Design the sequence.
């Protein structure tokens, strides 16, 4: 029986044209983030299953690729639960591994630590266009800075990178989990219900305010609380400064330092940002991860109807490993969506060096071949990209393929012409 030549369902082979764009984008990301002081680091693709299933990853914890114990540690006959047969899992994001890394190496790292991590993650998700079971994430995080300078730097670094890649007219939507909680408390909901309420609120862009009201009612929440809650969103429509409206409504419910810090982030970014994006306060923004404790943000591209990145503050995660909380904040760029957008728009990698193809007829060998290779080596030393290959029978088709790959110049070497 022939072996299966297709990749595993939900994973993909990457052809040279896409790989060239991916390498270029990674180069821009590393260079730009490096100018903001972020340091590259790396974690293993597998983590202890207890770390991955610690109820910090939201719905992603249901999508873990779990790895069976091996050898004498695996006893299927006595196994009753997953814990009896599983010890590791493939990482589903880069945040949990980063926090574990920081907890393990904090004494060896600068304070604050500005981390850049690019790597594949795995989720047992339903494959569809632009969504794979293996995909690359690109995160920047600042650990050890409790001030809102962390949020400001993360937003500016991420948006600068997107601007360098040619993206314009996108939005960075921003909110704060503490504002979300204050709005729920103001409306009379019990704190234990907040997470479920936020899950429903997060659907507002899809089901509308009426749909949110219906779902909250069906869940059995007090109608008076629902009406008061949703009135906040109705009343802010048309307000020139929705943040000021919420700040006024939350007087006595939301800490004044939270208000001041949140507004300072918005004002500082607006005063120093480029014109390629808008910073938008969005009181319906939730972000699904339960580990977020403060500011949250998301990149939206209204022209394309998609989001391509997000993040927020997660001050309680390090303490799960060490017993001592450390302030932390991160921003993840939607690497795969960016690549998909660039591919579909016909993006070409700019500023390529001249690409020359040496096409050598079959039969050219010995001293003549050595002279050709030496000539190619000299051009390479001068910075030219040189492909040395044998000439195909269908030379026209071969040159068409190479032209599509960006080769601009062809040098052709024939056996008869090389004779002295």
Sequence:
């Amino acid at each position: 029986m022939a072996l299966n030549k297709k990749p595993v369902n939900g994973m993909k082979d990457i052809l040279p044209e896409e790989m060239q764009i991916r390498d270029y984008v990674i180069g821009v990301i590393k260079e730009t983030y490096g100018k903001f002081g972020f340091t590259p680091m790396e974690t293993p693709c597998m983590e202890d299953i207890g770390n991955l299933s610690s109820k910090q990853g939201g719905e992603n914890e249901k999508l873990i690729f779990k790895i069976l114990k091996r050898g004498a540690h695996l006893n299927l006959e006595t196994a009753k639960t997953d814990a009896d047969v599983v010890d590791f899992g493939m990482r589903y994001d880069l945040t949990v591994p980063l926090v574990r890394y920081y907890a393990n190496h904090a004494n060896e790292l600068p304070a604050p630590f500005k981390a850049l991590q690019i790597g594949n993650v795995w989720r047992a998700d339903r494959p569809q266009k632009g969504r794979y079971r293996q995909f690359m994430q690109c995160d920047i995080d600042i650990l050890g800075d409790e001030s809102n300078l962390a949020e400001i730097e993360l937003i500016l670094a991420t948006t600068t990178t997107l601007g360098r890649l040619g993206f314009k007219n996108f939005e960075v939507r921003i909110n704060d989990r503490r504002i979300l909680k204050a709005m729920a408390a103001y409306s009379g909901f019990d704190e234990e219900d907040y997470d479920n309420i936020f899950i429903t609120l997060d659907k507002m862009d899809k089901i509308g305010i009426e749909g949110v009201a219906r779902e909250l009612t069906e869940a059995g929440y007090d109608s008076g609380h629902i009406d008061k809650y949703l009135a906040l969103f109705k009343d802010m429509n048309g307000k020139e400064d929705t943040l000021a409206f919420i700040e006024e409504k939350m007087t006595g419910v939301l800490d004044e330092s939270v208000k001041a810090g949140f507004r300072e982030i918005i004002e500082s970014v607006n005063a120093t940002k480029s014109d390629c994006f808008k910073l938008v306060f969005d009181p319906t923004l939730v972000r699904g991860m339960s580990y977020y404790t403060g500011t949250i943000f998301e990149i939206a591209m209204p022209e394309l109807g998609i989001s391509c990145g997000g993040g927020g503050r997660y001050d309680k995660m390090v303490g799960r490993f060490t017993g001592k909380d450390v302030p932390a904040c991160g921003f993840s760029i939607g690497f795969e969506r960016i690549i998909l957008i660039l591919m579909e728009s016909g993006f070409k990698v700019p500023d390529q060096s001249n690409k020359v193809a040496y096409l050598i007829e079959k039969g050219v060998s010995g001293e003549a071949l050595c002279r050709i290779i030496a000539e190619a080596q000299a051009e390479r030393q001068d910075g030219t990209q040189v492909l040395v290959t044998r000439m195909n029978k269908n030379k026209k088709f071969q040159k068409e393929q190479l032209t599509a790959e960006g080769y601009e110049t062809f040098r052709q070497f024939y056996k008869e012409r090389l004779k002295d």
User: Anything to note?
Assistant: The longest strand covers residues 113-122. Residues 16-35 form the longest helix (20 residues). The mean pLDDT is 89. DSSP finds 15 helices and 14 strands in the chain.
